[in-house]
Specification:
Rossmann fold, 2 domains, six-stranded antiparallel barrel, 19 strands
Length: 555
């Protein structure tokens, strides 16, 4: 008989009956993890007190790292090592007070057998709720069972009651009665026919989705499997950010100057300073103008109908941030760019749909929105935003709960009050972008919007849609919200129709939300229904969330 060296599998210690393990997924960037650690530690302390009061012990599954000065899991490899030491049947909490990379912990979570609870703070400054929504969507895509909770201070009765329920039963559920399957809604014949025709056109003529470095921001939920995407008529062109960098270096200085002058002529306000390490400089902006030209030319080379630039990992070490580039691309009124031979204006008179952070779900949604709104004569500009935070309006302008939708890239000036003249460009925070680069900042104009999200749920494409209004708040209240979040980024004050804060958190399967304006409330309702019909005809499971503006249900 042959003798083999059979490896021994080391089993982790068994968790005690009243022990709950905690893990914290972090950023990939050391500077971000160090800057955010204090907020994470404060959250964990508060959470630990609540769990102790319930008669349980919270056990941190990985230590604070003295040399790195933070206690986050900062890579997939580290996450695997941490989970190798956790009892796979233990109760497990993923606590998030910051943005996090889901793939750092996904491998361990998918093999974990015990109850999983994701928990987030409620803060604009420390975006744990954004990170948690991303993780929740990733677990949903993988078909992994989990529960989720959120709180401002982890001592309110609603949180404590639900925490106790999870500790006792290993599960907590939220009511989502605001969600209605499209099959229960009677879609008017005109919108139904349009949606079905657009779905047939896409399946027949097909579209190309250009993707620069798929998945490098760790968002597993933002990747649509080819097997789900291709039957719709959408095919990926996988591109490299190194190609975008090279093409940027090939753009002539005078071409960049023409784009820059166009922006100045439109009234874009650049906030320049003398120190490139901390301030926005003209040199950074001119590089962004070159990247804008390069992106259009690469998209044209491959016949792309939409593109997504990853904008952080990899590219951030070579070029200034792509925020300004992305916002320009998503606007119909933007600097013209000619082909290399000078014979054609690329994507003339229309946006080149861009999806920030290469969120393919947002990309597919953006493509659908562009086609629906084009056919209906509605504004075609659309973008994703982070569901960054929400709060009561402190100015007394409205009694409604006002969400802060906020995103670094992709927001088009057509969404802003006064358009280009109401926009400014400020340097991205040094913590994330040491080479700088200007944002495209503005305040979203009051009006009627359709919001939506495409997501993958256990092997199927799904779409949620809803209606909302954008409200205008006084300058002081807007600035307060910017101060609580990221003041360099564009902001949208959104009031969701018929959806409470907790309903949104319980249901939404992404850190991102797609938004598009319509001319008025009636037009927005029709655009929503036409897009819903298109999605259903494409084979998605479609649900409508909340109500119309007047509070009337969709059924």
């Amino acid at each position: 008989m042959a003798a083999y060296k059979v490896p021994a599998v080391v089993k982790p210690p068994k968790a005690k009956k009243k022990q709950v393990y905690l893990v914290a997924s972090g950023d990939l960037r050391l500077s971000a993890n160090q800057n955010c650690w204090a907020a994470q530690h404060e959250m964990e302390e508060a959470l630990g007190r609540s769990i102790a009061d319930a008669g349980y012990e919270l056990v941190r599954a990985h230590p604070y790292k003295e040399e790195e000065k933070h206690g986050f899991i900062a890579s997939q490899k580290e996450g695997m090592c941490v989970f190798a030491g956790i009892d796979p049947d233990a109760k497990l909490i993923v606590a998030e007070a910051v943005w996090q990379y889901s793939h750092h912990v996904l491998a361990g979570l998918l093999s974990h057998r015990g109850p999983i609870l994701t928990v987030a703070n409620w803060s604009g400054t420390w975006s744990g709720l954004v990170g948690m929504l991303n993780l929740n969507a990733s677990l949903t895509k993988a078909g992994k069972k989990y529960s989720t909770l959120w709180s401002e201070d982890f001592s309110d009765k609603a949180f404590l009651d639900r925490l106790g329920e999870w500790l006792d039963k290993g599960e907590v559920r939220h009511k989502t009665k605001h969600v209605v399957p499209l099959k229960k809604v009677k879609v008017p014949s005109a919108e139904q026919r349009l949606g079905e025709a657009l779905a047939r056109q896409l399946a027949s003529e097909k579209a190309i989705m250009g993707i620069f470095d798929e998945g490098c921001m760790g968002m597993y939920n933002a990747i649509i499997q080819d097997e789900l995407l291709s039957p719709l008529g959408v095919f990926k062109e996988r591109l490299s950010q190194s190609a975008l960098y090279y093409e940027t270096t090939q753009v002539r200085d005078e071409e960049a100057r023409e784009v820059y002058q166009w922006l100045l002529d439109r009234g874009l306000d650049f906030h320049f300073g003398p120190d490139a390490r901390k301030d926005l400089t003209e040199t950074q902006v001119l590089l962004q103008c070159k990247m804008y030209i390069a992106a259009l030319r690469i998209a044209d080379d491959f016949g792309c109908h939409l593109i997504g630039i990853q904008y952080q990992q990899g590219l951030k070490d070579l070029l200034p941030a792509s925020d300004l580039v992305e916002g320009m691309l998503n606007n119909a009124d933007r600097p013209p760019v000619k082909s290399r031979d000078g014979r054609r204006v690329l994507y003339e008179g229309r946006p080149l749909v861009h999806f920030n952070e290469v969120d393919e779900c947002a990309g597919l949604d953006g493509l659908m929105t562009y086609r629906v709104h084009s056919a209906m004569g509605q504004p075609v500009e659309n973008t994703l935003h982070d569901i960054r935070w929400g709060d009561a309006d402190r100015s007394g302008t409205t009694d409604e709960y006002v969400w802060v939708f906020l995103i670094s890239g992709s927001a088009p000036p057509a969404h802003f009050i006064d358009g280009w003249k109401g926009a400014s460009s400020q340097r991205q925070p040094e913590m994330y972008f040491h080479l700088g680069g200007g944002t495209l900042k503005g305040i979203s104009k009051p009006g009627e919007i359709v919001w939506s999200r495409v997501f993958v749920d256990n092997g199927r494409l799904k779409m949620d849609l809803g209606r909302a209004g954008v409200v205008e708040l006084p300058a002081e209240e807007t600035q307060r919200r910017w101060n609580e979040t990221t003041s360099q980024w564009p902001i949208m004050h959104a009031v969701l129709y018929g959806v409470t804060r907790d309903q949104m958190m319980a249901r939404h399967k992404a850190n991102h939300i797609q938004v598009a304006y319509a001319d008025d409330a009636a037009a927005a309702d029709k655009a929503l229904l036409a897009k819903a019909a298109m999605a259903e005809a494409m084979g998605m499971d479609v649900s409508l969330c909340g109500t119309r503006k007047n509070g009337k249900s969709w059924t």
